[in-house]
Amino acid sequence: MTLFADLLSTVFERRYERWTRKGVTDTRPFEELTVDLMGAAGEVSGVAVARTILERFASADDAEKLAFFRHLAENMTITPTAVRSALDAYETGQTKSSYRAFMAAAEPPRQEMIRRLNQVPGATRALVAMRADLLRLGRGEASLEALDLDFRHLFASWFNRGFLVLRPINWESPAHILEKIIAYEAVHAIDSWNDLRRRLEPADRRCFAFFHPAMPDEPLIFVEVALTNGVPGSIQSLLAEDRAPLMAEDADTATFYSISNCQAGLASISFGNSLIKQVAADLALELGGLKTFVTLSPIPGLAKWLQAGHDFNDPEKLRALAASYLTAAKRPDGLPLDPVARFHLGNGAEVFRIHADADLSEKGLKQSKGVMVNYLYDLERVSRNHERFATSHEIAMSSEIRSLSASAEKLGI
Amino acid sequence: MTLFADLLSTVFERRYERWTRKGVTDTRPFEELTVDLMGAAGEVSGVAVARTILERFASADDAEKLAFFRHLAENMTITPTAVRSALDAYETGQTKSSYRAFMAAAEPPRQEMIRRLNQVPGATRALVAMRADLLRLGRGEASLEALDLDFRHLFASWFNRGFLVLRPINWESPAHILEKIIAYEAVHAIDSWNDLRRRLEPADRRCFAFFHPAMPDEPLIFVEVALTNGVPGSIQSLLAEDRAPLMAEDADTATFYSISNCQAGLASISFGNSLIKQVAADLALELGGLKTFVTLSPIPGLAKWLQAGHDFNDPEKLRALAASYLTAAKRPDGLPLDPVARFHLGNGAEVFRIHADADLSEKGLKQSKGVMVNYLYDLERVSRNHERFATSHEIAMSSEIRSLSASAEKLGI
Amino acid sequence: MTLFADLLSTVFERRYERWTRKGVTDTRPFEELTVDLMGAAGEVSGVAVARTILERFASADDAEKLAFFRHLAENMTITPTAVRSALDAYETGQTKSSYRAFMAAAEPPRQEMIRRLNQVPGATRALVAMRADLLRLGRGEASLEALDLDFRHLFASWFNRGFLVLRPINWESPAHILEKIIAYEAVHAIDSWNDLRRRLEPADRRCFAFFHPAMPDEPLIFVEVALTNGVPGSIQSLLAEDRAPLMAEDADTATFYSISNCQAGLASISFGNSLIKQVAADLALELGGLKTFVTLSPIPGLAKWLQAGHDFNDPEKLRALAASYLTAAKRPDGLPLDPVARFHLGNGAEVFRIHADADLSEKGLKQSKGVMVNYLYDLERVSRNHERFATSHEIAMSSEIRSLSASAEKLGI
Amino acid sequence: MTLFADLLSTVFERRYERWTRKGVTDTRPFEELTVDLMGAAGEVSGVAVARTILERFASADDAEKLAFFRHLAENMTITPTAVRSALDAYETGQTKSSYRAFMAAAEPPRQEMIRRLNQVPGATRALVAMRADLLRLGRGEASLEALDLDFRHLFASWFNRGFLVLRPINWESPAHILEKIIAYEAVHAIDSWNDLRRRLEPADRRCFAFFHPAMPDEPLIFVEVALTNGVPGSIQSLLAEDRAPLMAEDADTATFYSISNCQAGLASISFGNSLIKQVAADLALELGGLKTFVTLSPIPGLAKWLQAGHDFNDPEKLRALAASYLTAAKRPDGLPLDPVARFHLGNGAEVFRIHADADLSEKGLKQSKGVMVNYLYDLERVSRNHERFATSHEIAMSSEIRSLSASAEKLGI
């Protein structure tokens, strides 16, 4: 990562910083600026205008931002009549030029505008932040939600797996990256630099993140891994301050115990599946002793799903209830109720083991009565599991989980 | 560049090489493979299928490639009825979901297929090569030319200026990059490593290339620059083997004497304008003495345009004819006949000086009777020039060129 | 620094770690091992023996270490009779071989032993740590103090200025380097990562360290710099949490407010003078606005020197006393009593200004009643100042300091 | 290497270039300059003087250089009477200060001068070049040969194995490094960039060099390796233009077929032994299939040793003669007559196989009638072989070689 950041910062970020320092002197309204950017000169000389728009947006208040978004939503969207006539022409004669005309009509001008904004060094980060604003301000407003689909469409193309770089995060990583790891950790909070260090420095701890070359200082998503002997059954023991680290070479299991998205502006652009599989593949290559790849995951919806009458003091009953919740509780669309289960099962993992008293933190007790689950990534079965889940919502599980579920059913819980 | 290549090669290319070595064992037809890639499992587990497609394509013969392209052209294009009904629904109720449905219908499935192919490490380079094949094989076949528009649309997004990295190319650059510079030089051929060295190593010579992070070993476009005192009037003196180099700090002029695109598969994705302006800006920042930024350019269409009756032995007459050709000879669409003129004038440059006996190479004599031209990039006027050229085809020129043209007119030549 | 650490860690440190993990199986006494290392096989196959010695030493207790040092001191020193006869032979016939024989006799075998130990990857750091042990354990024991002179002689050659690399330390530096900065700061303690960040991240703060390529994870010495407008008069205002940072370009003064040696094992190998001058030169090159280079320094010996009768409540009197102390209080050898004064005056700096209430920390009040001093590095005068100080102990000072001293004298204080 | 060069060039070389450009204005004689450098100011402010000396030396003619060396030889050597009295004092009382005084007297001042010269950025390279001049100009002049021992002593310390960095050289290495490989190849000449490429780019070819951090653009020594199946018997087949490369993973043998020292100024500082063993260890780690490490070496002294009466047309007789030459022909000091044999046997290798018609180049035929030899590096036996060779000149050889030698003896040849 460090090389990377170093190289690209030089190239991109320094210039970026430079323009953020200068005041913006062009005070024309956004409407005029966007016309300018899209006009004849825009393709060739548009960088200055693009810079002005980005900078003005960055310092705008919410009302101004909303006005800007509404301008894009209303004035830079598709024109159905134009689309229809281009489509008619294309149907009549399927030529290069009729197809080109259709493509031009069917794509709203704001997509090209976003691409032109992106010509400015450092713009990608600014555009991701812009979408975070849009998601925040546009909720429930149909035309803004539609506008967001254009951002999302472009970002899915720009942040294609093929453009991402997987980098290890460790105690030799730059401090300004590490402070983002502390800030973005969403599962088990990191409460100090010492806590961070305990998760990065020991020989049996690893962390990996995806980066995009145009945002080298910003992790997109990261995963924390513990190398263990056997499948761990509680987060307390995994993160115990006084534990004795293993030699990495002696571990037989890689446990993914935390995975966090970092960029609000990249919501719905999915990286987690690729990240887990890439990290599993890389670790398997590096450490021949690793045979098992599991998660140690929260069950965020469990407590809410449990009913008042349940006995929460019997760990066995809790485990059976959790098995039942994970494998049988469904949304109307047939997918699992639990969001973390949806994610891992959607990736082709299987429900492997369930542990009571596994997360005794305030948050753990509150959301799942302390219960946690291991999802198993069996690289041989992941593809088949995924396909069955995608086509028939079939949930893969170990025999242990199958028994637990059955016992829950028998008990009528 | 070296850091970059080093880093990213490690990440991407090595893996890429690995898969190209293994034989491909999946021998299903391309049709089935693309169905698989686009199916339920494709988004999550599609990397293996994508790899198979890319590898199979790389080793296919032209007939198989053509069959693959026709499959994309015919079976993975838009369905006009589906677009129309999605458009109708959207017009009736402009909601997030009706817009999403329209977007899905209006984009041909092959675009998503190309994005999924790109998930494979090293795929971007393979896809650029695929488009080079498409351009070569699809010429004149309407549905393949339409298919090419989808490649071009995606590549314009992926190779957006904001994602490109400008790197100096010098005698400390990696040999495998330098041999590409030798191979891709399209204006004044580099005939040996010693010739290359004379263009890179002296203190008054510079070369810069754009790279894309996903293709770190492949320059996209490069420009060769000579730092000079005054505006140079011939390529012979510029490249003379025995010339005495200047100290860079002592130069007042940066002369862009060669600019070459490197990737056939990126045809029509324009980088040259950005490259020239970025290099000019960077050089101006580094070397305070630089006041003038010009090209020393060929006039590839001149000889063809000249008529038999013209007297080619009078250098003054030749210069006047060249001025006339560059400023008055137009295509039906009103743009200059000369392709190099179109490029530089389109960037906002102006026709500055014309020199006879300026390129005495076989090629130079053949294409332009040895005449060359300087285009001036005056950073203060570039934007206005560009706009006038774009809106009214007005050609910017120096008073010297204006006089030359006028004299040509007077002479009735 | 990050590139550097990254590169060289790969090369050296990883291997180093590897050998420290394996148990040592060769349990022969140090005496035997050193004989082996110095014997016929040592030059070519000595790496394994060298590794064993270093590893055994690293895990030895103080008694064993002392025994090892005494072995070197007694059995691997020069043999005066051998030196004398080699000298006689050389005097008789000054040939290449008589000179070589003299060199061999005049250098104690332990120097060659230390060089052979250094063949092991990672050994340089281990040898620096070994000398730290020697300094600690050998104090007052003449033969061990002599032994230390050999370590010091070799280290002065190995850590020659020409081999050191100056690297900026900033908020993008690796965390494992930054934690060493926190640990080694010897002047104004850094009490947290936030405190560190305040010294590294703002645009008007800089930090630089010298590294040696064979110890890329270990800063040797570092200096903290504040870019200011005018010469600062107190450490409180300089480090105030709520101060508003300057733009670096707007600063006219670079203030060196803390300089710390990091390696006990490199005691008496002087880096500070080179570091200050190199940093001053680099900053001057980068920031054209910088006109003044000063320190804001403690006066560690002031409080001890002051007498009971002095009135410490009058800041003016305190300043005069400090001026008197810095410029007139001398050791028997004629050099200033104050160690920080000796260092900066020895570098060619001059006593520039004195401030009362300038360091109100517990340490500052205790050691100097809160008084601090600016030493000025005037690059034009540094060489002359240094020479006068070196040859005649003449102390350079500003007219303000001269007046203060004079007033102190008049007051009889 | 590229990272390294990049980083350190930035740090060192650029500055170096800068000073070489400025004219030297200080025209005092070398004698005065060295007095200045060694004087009171030298330790602290000596960099400017050191720079002047280095630059003046670089542009001096041979007569001036010789005068400079004689100045060092005569005026900056040890003073026997001073050494003797320091030695007497030390013998009387072995204290720290008497030992320090002895060290000071026993080391000639020119050693400290060389260390002070090395403070200048880029100086290490200049000092290595200075020693190359000394070796060239000082031959046969006793006091200059003695002076050289001081350079050599310092360089042995500076270029200690622990400070060297092993870097792969490949087709991605910087051109300015590669051109040095072409220039320095001393065994089998590289006649073009294409020839170089054939030795670097194929999957079954490797090249490695040692670098010193203070001379990052200068390889010190490099070795070329062919990965083969079985032990190769001729250089023609090894370097054949049309051979089909192996996959590296499929090779069972690493053949070191060329090893070249690059720096005349580092003569007698031995790197070859470390290089071969390090490269063998690294390759063994990377490629598990490698079981055998051999050389394919010239026999430079063979032709000269053969007598007129020998029949050079019978390959078997030639092989027997070569075996006899390599194992039985000795210098007066008991070491092998052949210099390459001395080197490899001294490293602990054994004479393994001998091939006729193995080097049919003009040079190969001339120096050894086309015969070549494999030396085997058996890592298990290397240490024992070396020790026996070092202590009793015993030559390790395979049974094949033993038979060949015996047959030669029987034939009385």
UniProtKB/TrEMBL annotation, chains A, B, C, D:
Residues 162-309, 317-378 form the Malonyl-CoA decarboxylase C-terminal domain. Pfam families: MCD, MCD_N. It comes from the Bacteria. Residues 81-159 form the Malonyl-CoA decarboxylase N-terminal domain. Coiled coil: none annotated. GO terms for molecular function: malonyl-CoA decarboxylase activity. One of its GO terms (biological process) is fatty acid biosynthetic process. This is Decarboxylase. It comes from Marivita geojedonensis.
